[in-house]
Amino acid sequence: MVSRLRAEWRRALHAARTLDPQAVFVLLAAVALVIVQFTFGSRRVFREEFAAFFPAEWQGVLAWGWWFAMQGVTGFVLPVLALVLLFRRRPGEIGLGLGDWKLALTIAALYVPVVAVGTWVLSDGAAFQEQYPHYQPAAHDWRFFVIYELLFLFYWIGWEYLWRGFVLFGTAPALGVYAVFVQAMPFALLHLQKPLAEALLSIVGGVALGALVWRCRSFWIAVPIHAAQMLMLDLWCTLRIRTGVSGVGPEALAELLRQL
Hints:
Elements (H helix, E strand, L loop, with lengths): L1 H16 L3 H20 L2 H7 L6 H31 L14 H22 L3 H6 L10 H34 L3 H11 L6 H21 L5 H22 L6 H10 L1
Helix pairs in contact: 2-4, 2-7, 3-4, 4-7, 5-10, 7-8, 7-9, 7-10, 8-9
């Protein structure tokens, strides 16, 4: 029995030596960073530890700002430092360069009108109006809406880099193009609590964004695409909540604009 266990131990050590250290670190660290974000970056932590230092009127939006900022730290700052300091990667190797920016801008310009129409249709559903904007007072106060959306940018940088930067480029040397699909899986799973249509679309969106970043060799293109998508959804839902307009045809849009 002892000899057999020793043999298995030697096999395990041999297998471990064949693993790519960077890929192993990135995949495990990504999970740990999500746990840290959900534990210490939650709005509950802000409410319990920091809210008392701010006026009551601003505590709600700042709680979301805490969540967004912590996502920026756990999704962008820490992963970048890990790849640069621990694995000596250059910015261009980990998706931080400009890459093929001309292609990226062209695709973004083509995508935005599609998103505008798609989010307009989705915003007609009650499930979406109940969730967006996540900070509901933003739907009734333009001050909070603007501040909330600006703070959201920290979130998008951290969210997109964690998957389309850290995981994608961090595992690419070991997995090749399959890294596109690896980064899409946890990204989609984190949409489980979203409306069904959004949850299913996150699978397609995760692969598509990963493929785009892979092609352009820069994660930056994913930030404005995803941010614009959410901004438009928040805006359409806000306008519908404020006006009570329903429907997706041109007459509904005309009525909504008339009531502004």
